[in-house]
Design goal:
This is Type II secretion system protein H. This protein is of the alpha+beta class. The protein has one domain (10-164): minor pseudopilin epsh domain (minor pseudopilin epsh fold, 3-Layer(bab) Sandwich). It contains 2 helices and 9 strands.
C-alpha cells in the first residue's frame, strides 16, 4: 500500500519561516529609506505645485500673488495670498487668502531666510531679490546620500526641482 503526502512537514515549514525572516531583516530597513525618500519628494512636489499655482493665479487675476510661509518657516506650512508678502495670518484676517497648505512632518526645510515668493501679472518673480532656493530633506537623511530636493525659482518665475546630496 502506498502513502501519499498532501502537505508540508514541520521541517519544511521551519526552513521557510527562517528564510522569510532573513529576507525581512534585510528588506525592512531598505523599505524605510524608500518611504523617507517618497515623503520628501511628495512635499517638494507639493511646494512646486503651490509655486506654479501662485504664478498662474497672478497671471489669471492680473495682479501680484504671493506664496508665503507660515510663521516659523515653510516647515509649518504655506499659503497663496493676494498681494505682496504680508503673512498668512494677515491674509486670513483680510480675506486675501487663496489657498493653504499644511505643515510638513519628518522633513527639514531650509529656505535660506526666504519667507515667500511674489509674482506679477506677467508671471515674473518680483520678490524677493536674488536667488530663491528652498531645500528639503528627510530628518534622517545621511550625509552624501541622494535624498535632498531643491526648489529653485528663477527671476522669470520658472520653478524647478533638482535632486541633491543631503547636508
Amino acid at each position: 500500500m502506498k502513502y501519499y503526502s498532501h502537505g508540508f512537514t514541520l521541517i519544511e515549514l521551519v526552513i521557510t519561516m527562517a528564510v522569510l525572516g532573513i529576507l525581512l531583516a534585510f528588506g525592512i530597513p531598505a523599505f524605510n529609506g524608500v518611504i523617507e525618500n517618497n515623503r520628501v519628494t511628495t512635499q517638494a512636489n507639493s511646494l512646486l505645485g503651490a509655486v506654479n499655482y501662485a504664478r498662474s493665479e497672478a497671471v489669471k487675476r492680473g495682479e501680484i500673488v504671493s506664496l508665503q510661509s507660515e510663521v516659523g518657516g515653510f516647515g509649518n506650512g504655506w499659503c497663496v495670498i493676494l498681494g505682496p508678502l504680508d503673512g498668512c495670518q494677515n491674509a486670513r484676517d483680510n480675506d486675501l487668502l487663496v489657498r493653504e497648505f499644511g505643515a510638513i512632518r519628518a522633513v527639514i526645510v531650509d529656505a535660506g531666510g526666504t519667507n515667500g515668493v511674489s509674482f506679477d501679472n506677467r508671471g515674473y518673480r518680483v520678490a524677493p531679490a536674488g536667488n530663491v532656493v528652498i531645500g528639503m530633506q528627510s530628518d534622517n537623511c545621511q550625509a552624501n546620500a541622494d535624498g535632498r530636493r531643491e526648489l529653485t525659482v528663477s527671476t522669470a518665475g520658472r520653478a524647478s526641482l533638482t535632486r541633491e546630496e543631503c547636508e
